[in-house]
Amino acid sequence: MGKVVRSYVDGRHGQMHVRIALPDAPSATPLMCIHMSPMSGRVFERLLPAMGEDRIAIAFDTPGFGMSDAPPAPPEIEDYARDLLAGLDALGIAGQVDLMGYHTGSMIAVALSRIAPGRVRRVLMVAAPIFTEDERREFRAYYRHREPEADGGHILRRWKGFLYHHLRPGVTIAEVNDAFREALLGGNLEWWGHRAAFNYDLAADLASVELAVLILNTGDDLYQQTPRAAGVAARSRILDVPGWGHGFVDQHTGDVEQVSRAFFDAADGAEFADVAAPPSATGPRFPARTGSFALVDTASATPA
User: Which site among 92, 101, 161, 304 is 20 to 30 Å from 58 CA-CA?
Assistant: First the structure.
């Protein structure tokens, strides 16, 4: 396993926190993993050393999240992409990289591919958030900024929604709680990533991407939106993995590594030849109810 170190680099808006696996003798294209919002690079903490055995594997905290300094104003998806390019430059990585994006991170990966196509080799997306206009309005209303409340009600609402989407068979409440703290590090700016996501036209940018793109349709809150990406990018494939929901990178790290390597390590022109869903990814979706928003009563989300 590669060893992961944590460090900071100077970015466009202050310091950017990064987790990086540095193998003794890198032999494969560097991999940059881009987290969802409002989370941090901790989402990939177990995957980085596995992928980092033979390549540099990187996960920045995007500006304003995790331990990275925030920009002076709410950014757009393209701004996050430029921030990560600056981060790569600060690390001295000047050549091509592979990208793995998760939800908002998928959008950033696609935007980065358009902005700097010569810097990106292949893209793996965890979900493809392609929204209708009605959904954009609904998402903006649901994920709008809410002022902190003295009784902590704003934290309780976020916890209930987080629990609903993360608690599944094989996962404990303690493990969900450990991940939840990352969702709070954005503080009062936690809505910035969602704002950027709902402003971004993923379908338009994805249609311009000529690179190989593997899209995982995970069994989470974007399970209904992701199939809209079918055929949008000329060299793309959607892999249905309903058994993988939020937290799957931690829960099924070995299987995620297997799928990632099958895609990233394949020969040019055969990028999808060996890509297949492992048994952990073909199980039932949990929660079984599809949709992007948690139920008011989350008791039904508790695994038996």
Answer: 161
